[in-house]
Specification:
single chain, 430 residues, alpha+beta, BirA Bifunctional Protein, domain 2, Rossmann fold, 2 domains, 5-stranded mixed β-sheet, 14 helices, 33% helix, 28% strand
Length: 430
C-alpha cells in the first residue's frame, strides 16, 4: 500500500489535498494522470449504464437541495455513525473498527485508554446559503446523490418516453463529515458517486428478478475492467444491519490489504424514497402504466458505489513490482494514456520531427503521451508506472522503412509496426 501511495504522488495520479498548507484530512487532489484515469472510468461507466441501454436515462442533479428533501429521506436524523471518544486526547473512532482503535491505543504507550460510550454523529456537512448565517439559511451539502434522482422522478417521466421498468443514472459529488477518514482514498470527506436507481412494478417476483440481475451485472462490470475474481465477493447484509426499508441488500466487497471492504452496494429499497418525498412534498409521485391503466408507487433497485474506492482497488489489483521495475497493469480501457510516442534520441531533430508527426496524428483518435526526457529506459519506466499499455519509438530505421518499434507494457515484447497501420493497431488492441 505504501509503495502504491508513493507511486501515485510521484507520477501525478493523486496528491494530498491542500498539501502546501499542511493538508486537510480526508481530501485528495487528482493530478494530471489521475484526472485522466477518473475520466476514463466515468466515461466507461456511463457508456455501460446509459449509452448501451434502452432502459436507463441520465441525470445531473444539483448538489444543494431544499433542506426538506433531507428531512424526507431521513438523513437529518438517520445519517449517522456511532462514535467513541478517547478520554485522554478526545479523538473519535468508530467502534466497529477495532484495528484503528488498537493502533490509537498504542500511541499512548503505557497509559490505559478509557473510551466513552458510543454516541451518534451526523455525517451531513452543513452550509449556509445567503449573506446571513442562521437557521433560516442553513442547508446541507448532499451526503449521497440518490435524493436528486427521486425528486426528479416525475420530471423524467414527463420529459421522456421511459416506461417501467427503467432506470435513472447519475454521477456526482457527495460530502460526508467523516470523523476517521483513512486508508488513502478509501474513506474521504469529498468523493464522487455513480448510481443507478432502477424503478420496477411493486411485485415480489419482479423485485427478486431485478435484484439478482443487477447483482450479476455489476459484478461483471468490475471483472470486465480486469479486476481479479479472487479478490471480489458478494456479502449479503444481516437482518440487523439492513436499513429498515430494505427488502434485500448486498455488497460487492474487495479483499484489501486491511481486509474485505465494501466497494458497491445493491439494495432493494422498495417504495421508501418515493413515498417519503410524496408525503413531505405533497406532490404525487405515482406512476400511471399506459398499458394496464394501473396507478402505483414503483419500487426501486439501487446500485451505488463511490468512484474513489473502486479506483483504489483497481490500482491495488494492477500494481506490480519486481527486481527490475514497477508498473501498473491497468486494463487498456482504463489506462490514462493508451500509448506513448518518443524519438530514440531527443537531440536528433530528424527523429523528433518524425515522432511529433506520428504523435499529432495518433492523438486525434486516442489519448497519447509525448516523452523525450532521459534515455529510452527511463521513458519506458515512467510510462510503465502510469500504466501506459504501449510505447512507440521512432528510430533511424524508421526513416528508411516507415516502421516503428512498439513495446508492450506487461510482456515488454517489441515488434515493428508500419506507421500506416498504427492507428488501426491501437484501436484494435485497445
Amino acid at each position: 500500500m505504501d509503495e502504491l501511495v508513493a507511486l501515485c504522488k510521484r507520477r501525478g495520479i493523486i496528491f494530498p489535498g491542500s498539501e502546501i498548507y499542511g493538508g486537510l484530512a480526508g481530501t485528495w487532489d487528482w493530478g494530471p494522470i489521475g484526472s485522466l484515469l477518473k475520466k476514463n472510468y466515468k466515461d466507461l461507466w456511463w457508456k455501460d449504464a446509459v449509452q448501451l441501454r434502452d432502459d436507463v436515462v441520465g441525470l445531473d442533479a444539483a448538489i444543494m437541495m431544499n433542506p426538506k428533501a433531507w428531512e424526507a429521506s431521513g438523513h437529518t436524523t438517520g445519517f449517522v455513525d456511532p462514535l467513541i471518544e478517547c478520554k485522554i486526547c478526545h479523538q473519535r473512532f468508530r467502534p466497529d473498527k477495532p484495528e484503528e482503535i488498537k493502533e490509537h491505543e498504542a500511541t499512548h504507550k503505557d497509559k490505559t485508554v478509557e473510551w466513552t460510550e458510543p454516541q451518534k454523529f451526523n455525517l451531513l456537512v452543513k452550509a449556509f446559503l445567503g449573506i446571513i448565517e442562521g437557521k433560516q439559511s442553513e442547508i446541507y451539502l448532499r451526503g449521497e446523490i440518490t435524493n436528486g434522482v427521486h425528486v426528479n422522478f416525475k420530471n423524467v417521466l414527463n420529459s421522456t418516453r421511459v416506461q417501467i421498468p427503467f432506470g435513472i443514472a447519475q454521477i456526482g459529488k457527495a460530502f460526508r463529515n467523516e470523523i476517521t477518514p483513512g486508508n488513502f482514498i478509501f474513506r474521504s470527506r469529498e468523493f464522487e458517486q455513480l448510481e443507478v436507481q432502477f424503478y420496477i412494478k411493486p411485485d415480489e417476483e419482479e423485485g427478486k428478478k431485478w435484484f439478482e440481475y443487477w447483482k450479476k451485472n455489476r459484478m461483471q462490470w468490475f471483472l470486465d475492467l480486469g479486476m481479479k475474481k479472487e479478490n471480489l465477493r458478494f456479502r449479503d447484509h444481516e437482518d440487523d444491519e439492513k436499513a429498515h426499508y430494505a427488502k434485500f441488500a448486498t455488497d460487492i466487497e474487495y479483499q484489501a490489504p486491511w481486509g474485505w471492504q465494501e466497494m458497491m452496494g445493491i439494495h432493494h429499497r422498495g417504495d421508501w424514497d418515493l413515498s417519503r418525498h410524496q408525503e413531505y412534498s405533497g406532490k404525487s409521485l405515482t406512476y400511471h402504466d399506459p398499458n394496464t391503466g394501473e396507478e402505483y408507487l414503483p419500487w426501486d433497485i439501487e446500485t451505488s458505489s463511490g468512484l474513489e474506492r473502486p479506483l483504489l482497488f483497481i490500482l491495488l489489483d494492477a500494481y506490480r513490482k519486481d527486481e527490475k521495475r514497477e508498473w501498473l497493469q491497468l486494463s487498456p480501457k482504463l489506462a490514462p494514456y493508451k500509448a506513448a510516442v518518443f524519438p530514440l534520441l531527443a537531440n536528433k531533430p530528424v527523429l523528433v520531427d518524425k515522432a511529433k508527426e506520428i504523435y499529432h496524428n495518433l492523438r486525434k483518435s486516442v489519448m497519447i503521451s509525448w516523452d523525450d526526457r532521459g534515455n529510452i529506459g527511463k521513458r519506458y519506466a515512467a510510462q510503465d508506472e502510469i500504466g501506459t499499455p504501449y510505447c512507440i519509438t521512432v528510430d533511424f530505421a524508421t526513416l528508411e522503412d516507415d516502421k516503428v518499434t512498439v513495446r508492450e507494457r506487461d510482456s515488454m515484447e517489441q515488434k515493428r509496426v508500419p506507421i500506416s497501420e498504427l492507428n488501426a493497431f491501437l484501436l484494435e488492441v485497445l
